[in-house]
Amino acid sequence: MVTTPETPVPASPTYPIERRCPFEPPADLARLRDTGPVPARLPSGQDAWLVARHADVRAVLGDGRRFSSDRGHPAFPRPFAEAPTQPIRPLSMIGMDGAEHTAARRLVVGEFTVRRAEAMRPRIQQIVDERIDAMLAAGGPVDLVEMLSLPVPSLVICELLGVPYADHDFFQRRSGMLLRRDVGGAARSTAMDELMSYLDGMIAAWEQDPGDDLIGRQIVRRREAGRYERDELVSLAALLLIAGHETTANMISLGILALLEHPDEAVALRADPSRTPLAVEEMLRYFTIVDSVTSRVTTEAVEIGERRIGPGEGVVALGLSANHDPASFEHPDELDLDRGARHHVAFGFGPHQCLGQNLARVELAVVFDTVLRRIPGLRLAGAVDELPYKDDASIYGIYRMPVEWAEPGCE
Amino acid sequence: MRVTADRNCCIGAGQCVLTDPVVFDQDADGVVLVRVERPTGEAADRVGEAVGLCPSGALRIEHD
Ligand code: SF4
Q: Region annotation Disordered: residue ranges (chain A) (predicted)?
């Protein structure tokens, strides 16, 4: 570690930083924002710099030249105790830099424009209504995660990609394992391999007759560009499949929990759904479920905050901390659905900012509006502090969320 | 004021379109298109916001 002598490095915090309650960001984060970047020992045995201020996080993630996303670099921060038993095939563009990354992203980003996401709204509404019908028919208490939070994004991404939803158990189990920190290296490798072979077999079959879905269109498009390689498309499909449902699913659960915990805000939102898009931004900021996935490795000596960091060192950008930085957000630890702050980094920042963000925004808005409208008597069947939160996963959320509801009119 | 976009560094995140769908658009490949080069009034304020939100630094404002 390279530091200037006049700024002694504070004591190493533990990392990952435990996050027990979704409504209370860890106190350590405030300390990290005060000190500026500090080195931390990762479960992998590596050392990496924790970057906690909003401005610093944006500076790191916004500069793809000096902060590389090369996941193959030995110093690239790995939040897992055990390394995979074999090198994991790179998950598509998230591990690329510069022009290579831009070119890879360009091939697919047209599928995720604001307009394309809006065009999916009616179908998303239908999916949400069907899931809520099923939930109401089942009668409470039910597990909201199983009945709503997971199936909605899973159905959406399956339809978009062209992957059969009937197989969702198979790939949800594997993607869930890949995101848990406590899963061993061998199990992680196996899960990834199984997911990749599943997609490889499917894509191989489709090569003969590409359909009108994202994967089919990608086959055609990549062939026309003279750069079709099945491996590349398999990695892309795996990335979209994993990123497309765990993230949105967790935001659905947490967002609904927030509405249940803030009944006044829920009433106000129900009365005026035009405010939902900004409410969604606030929930994204407040919970920041993708916190430390945004890691980088320096390509040259850099200065972050007041600290000098040498080349080839790992940096972890703490999104939750950035989004609760009082220098950028007033009363950051309060959930204020009218805040209207869109400069959060819940989708990351810079060249790798979430590809699916506009789809996620539409999904979340449709779910929140529809739940508020159709199940006004929704409540938690149990205590909020006893829910199984995902303290052990790279993407924060809730494993199970039992809910019940009063029949309309009986509130 | 005049708004310009560097289409080479745009990563198609769409923050600009969300901020002002009249001034900004995305082509079929997701790359930014500036539809109104010289926005005025509230649109000009929103363009300022879009510049701050753009994750790739693709947007620039020039003051005449
Ligand atoms: S916000 Fe920036 S990166 Fe995103 S589409 Fe607009 S110009 Fe491109």
A: 1-21
